[in-house]
Structure formats: structure tokens, C-alpha cells
Specification:
Elements lengths: L4 E2 L17 E5 L8 E5 L13 E2 L25 H17 L1
Antiparallel strand pairs: 1-4, 2-3
Length: about 100
């Protein structure tokens, strides 16, 4: 599941497919407002600078550079709501403490 992106400046808006990435980060600042939900895709390593990232063809898609950081990922299937996310965070912290 990717949004099409432009790989050349042309009036012919053919996009370039980018492989589905993991992790996918979803955020919703207001659980009552579905339009407040955002989704972030971590791009593959080959896109290691902003100049290498193809421009989105969809005006709702934005490319944002996020500073590098060290993190931990908890693998789960399906959508996670705030309550479940809090439970998973506690579990992850416990696992990291054991490791």
C-alpha cells in the first residue's frame, strides 16, 4: 500500500512504486475525528536523503524529514487503539528491562 510518486518532472504523472515498509506508524490526535488520523511510512534505506525521495503525486501526501533516533518496535497485527497501545508499551518496556 503506497501512494504514487513522481520520479521525473513531466506532465505525464506516472508514479514509482515503493515497496511497503515496516514499521508503519499511525497517529490520531482525536479518536472521535477520523480525519485527524495520520500515517507514517519509514522509507527503505535507498532513500537516504531528501533529494532521492520521489515527489508524491497525491497532494494529501507530504514528505517530512524526521531526525534519526534509536527506537524499539513492537510487532502487532491490525489496528491498535490508545488503550491497547498503552498496554503494549508497558509490555515492551518490561521486555526491554529484561533484555
Amino acid at each position: 500500500m503506497t501512494a504514487p510518486v513522481v520520479t521525473e518532472s513531466s506532465s505525464n504523472l506516472r508514479g514509482k512504486a515503493i515497496a511497503m515498509t515496516a514499521p508503519v506508524i499511525t497517529k490520531n490526535e482525536d479518536e472521535n475525528d477520523k480525519s485527524a488520523e495520520t500515517m507514517q511510512f519509514i522509507l527503505p534505506a535507498e532513500y537516504d536523503s531528501m533529494s532521492k525521495i520521489p515527489a508524491p503525486t497525491n497532494p494529501d501526501v507530504r514528505i517530512v524529514e524526521i531526525p534519526s533516533a534509536i527506537g524499539a518496535v513492537y510487532h502487532t497485527n491490525g489496528k491498535v487503539d490508545v488503550k491497547k497501545g498503552d498496554e503494549l508499551a508497558v509490555s515492551l518496556v518490561g521486555q526491554l528491562s529484561e533484555d
